[in-house]
Design the sequence.
């Protein structure tokens, strides 16, 4: 009987470990607030008082929330086949957009197993400094 329970527990654990990030319900891991400071658009992680690089793992979402009175965009500075790696389109004041940083995006950015890629981004609509996301692969594959 004990052996049957152990086998059942192992099988249950193995079946849940096989769910990859694309099948799971994605949660927003970090929120980046788009706001004007000193006349420039800034991308500041919620809860912080200044802009700094953000680190996430493949399969996580970032919420870009417009805290300003003007519409803004978020667009990758990396261009692949004539298009930015990612772009939010226009985010109106008070609105947000969640963006999933999945394995496909990671690989298109040149990411390799057990590595990190640095993704710079900015707004197409406002002047400001580029910001940075460090995207880590989850593990060797």
Sequence:
């Amino acid at each position: 009987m004990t052996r049957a329970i152990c086998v059942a527990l192992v099988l249950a654990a193995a079946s849940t470990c096989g769910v990859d990030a694309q099948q799971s319900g994605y949660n927003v891991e970090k929120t980046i607030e788009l706001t004007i400071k000193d006349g420039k658009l800034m991308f500041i992680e919620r809860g912080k008082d200044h802009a700094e690089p953000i680190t996430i793992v493949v399969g996580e979402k970032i919420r870009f929330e417009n805290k300003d009175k003007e519409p803004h965009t978020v667009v990758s500075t990396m261009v692949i086949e004539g298009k930015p790696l990612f772009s939010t389109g226009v985010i109106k004041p008070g609105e947000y957009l969640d963006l999933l940083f999945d394995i496909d995006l990671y690989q298109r950015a040149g990411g390799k197993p057990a590595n990190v890629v640095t993704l710079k981004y900015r707004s197409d609509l406002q002047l400001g400094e580029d910001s940075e996301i460090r995207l880590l692969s989850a593990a060797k594959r």
The chain has a mean pLDDT of 82. The CA atoms of residues 73 and 90 lie 5 Å apart. The beta strands are 28-37, 40-45, 54-57, 60-66, 75-76, 79-80, 83-84, 96-101, 116-122, 131-136. Residues 25-136 form a domain with the Immunoglobulin-like fold (CATH 2.60.40.420).
